[in-house]
Amino acid sequence: MLASAPCGAMGITELQMGIYGALSSAVTGLRAQSHALENISGNIANSQTTGYKRMETSFVDLIPDAPLRSQVPGAVLAQSRATNNIQGDIQTSSNETYIALNSGGFFVVEPKVGQSDGNSVFAGSNYFTRRGDFEIDKDGLLVNGAGYYLKGLPIDPATGNISGSVPEVIKLSNAFLPANVTTTINYQSNLPQLPKTASYNATVYNSELLGAQNFGATATTAAANGTADLGAGAGANVATSVFADGQEMTVTVNGAPVRFRYYTGATPPTGGGVAINLDAPKTVQNVLDEMQAGLRDFGGGAAASATVGLNGSNQFAVSLGSDYHASFSISGTTPALATTLGLTEPQASSAPALGTVNTITADDADDFVANSISGGAITVYASNGAPVNVQVRWAKVDSAAAGGADKWNMFYLSDSKAVGGSTAWTNIGQEYKFNSNGSLANSVPQATISNLRVNGVLIGDVVLQHETNGVSQFADVNGTVTVSTLNQNGYGAGEFLSVAITDSGRVVATYSNGERIEMAQVVTAQFNGVNSLKRLDGGVYAATSESGEPIFDLSGSGVIGGALEASNTDISDEFTKLIITQQAYSAGTRIVSTADEMLQEALNMIR
């Protein structure tokens, strides 16, 4: 009996150790469920907190070292697990400075550390948040409901490009927006192949053209002269002194041939053409007059005002009169007649020359408007912000159908109050020439209006930006200009009205002059280990070695303006976890009670 007492005491001790182990495991379970309850209560408490990310509880079992056949489940350890990668619901808001993220990133923010001379002081540290309820404070800074200030990169208002690479606290200015002088007008349009001006008449040749010669431009018409001096008073000589029976001559105007056939006797020649009888009392001048009439009748519109006669040097002369577009040629002339007149066979006329109309006087303004079509109007701004209305008109100055090429000039109203011989309209100085398919024959991606001045207000040099193929000439039944793009880059001074953050993450200020100026770009940050960020007060996070360094995104991708991200807490799910946690905790307390009773029984055995 004495020898067995130590063994019994040792068995009781082992029994007590097992009960103590069960008691210890139950206590860790209670502690773990208490931690879970703490997370659940925090989630429920923050179910309405903007941008809040709920905390989950992970349970880890702790296994004591023991032989394979004597292993026990062991104790438990509760750990918190972040849900930063789970997005809450996006809710719209009427506040234009509220923003949400439809991505896995974070806004970059910073707390204020103090004031110096009335200015906010920042330490330059970066924190990260999903809470986007930003509003403008008294200093023009964007601060959210937790007191953290939004950071981004400034934008150069002149170019619209981001400047800098290190995020800084966004500061807005409510100062007046200074005026910006107009330097560029973006203009794209289609000009009709046939402009139907007020003076256009379908039955009148070239009535759609400006007629540069009618506005003071120096222009010459196509002409051809013989080299033979027919002598003074040759026009009064009998016709047969120059022309003879059976002779011919063809004048081709703009592709339309007119064949003259000279004969004597009562029977005209057969085979067509304009037959001219030479019998007395016909004179040379009579023949020339008949040639002129025939040329006007059968030479097409370009020959409607053609002249045939003798010039001051008593030479045979043909011209197209008041037509400054077409040319002609003389061919098929009987050799003897060519020799008599001193013509080269064939003989081409001189080329017509159109003058350039640089300005239109007030006296000619009504006629100019009647012979041109409107190209739109736009308000531009001087350096002091003075607005000026620029009216544009297009005038077709030449035409392929008339024997030349399709050419246009653009004019602007430089002085609406001009009188008499003062300039009212001014040519911008750029010729627009078109191919038969309606595209520009001379590439004009842009043109410059030098020293643009309207009604005495100087704007300066202004670039008309057309881009490639921005101006075309396609058929248009209305005969009017169709303007597809017309805007400019100037504006007058404006008072600050409001600010908004766009879906591209741009902070945009609106002014009383209607301008919307981009002032900053919101920067977002991505993390490889997003759930390893350290949580801080106010819904912000700090980077850790486990989360990795932030990867900044300057594109504004995922930003939604006028919206907020709600908490990702699901109340019903949290209540379910609450019930489970309560039951687990209650079960743990029963283990403690049972272990206590068993321990008491073991102690009683010793007594």
Task: Describe the overall structure.
- The chain is α+β, with helices and mostly antiparallel strands.
- The chain folds into 4 domains: 12-83 and 569-605, no CATH class; 89-178 and 495-566, no CATH class; 184-204 and 355-488, Flagellar hook protein FlgE (Tick-borne Encephalitis virus Glycoprotein, domain 1, Sandwich); 219-353, no CATH class.
- It is built from 5 helices and 38 strands.
- Strands 5, 6, 7, 10, 11, 30, 31, 32, 33, 34, 35 and 36 form a 12-stranded antiparallel β-sheet that branches.
- The radius of gyration is 48 Å and the shape is rod-shaped.
- The two termini are 17 Å apart.
- Residues 102-161 form the Flagellar hook protein FlgE/F/G-like D1 domain.
Radius of gyration: 48 Å
**Assembly level:** single chain
Query: How far apart lie the N and C ends?
Result: 17 Å
> What percent of residues adopt helix (DSSP H or I)?
10-25%
Structural class: alpha+beta
Query: Whole-number average pLDDT?
Result: 90
Q: Please tell me the total number of domains.
A: 4
Shape: rod-shaped
Q: What is the number of strand segments?
A: 38
Topology summary:
Elements: H1 5-45, E1 55-62, E2 75-82, E3 90-92, E4 99-101, E5 106-116, E6 119-122, E7 127-129, E8 135-136, E9 142-143, E10 148-154, E11 168-169, E12 184-192, E13 223-225, E14 248-253, E15 256-263, E16 274-277, H2 284-298, E17 307-310, E18 316-319, E19 328-331, H3 335-341, E20 347-348, E21 359-361, H4 365-370, E22 373-381, E23 387-398, E24 406-413, E25 423-434, E26 446-454, E27 457-465, E28 471-474, E29 482-488, E30 496-501, E31 506-511, E32 516-522, E33 524-526, E34 534-536, E35 540-542, E36 551-553, E37 559-561, E38 563-565, H5 571-606
Parallel strand pairs: 12-27, 12-28, 15-16
Antiparallel strand pairs: 1-2, 3-38, 4-37, 5-6, 5-7, 5-10, 5-33, 7-35, 8-9, 10-11, 10-32, 12-29, 13-18, 14-15, 14-19, 17-18, 19-20, 21-25, 22-23, 23-24, 24-25, 26-27, 30-31, 31-32, 33-36, 34-35
Helix pairs in contact: 1-5
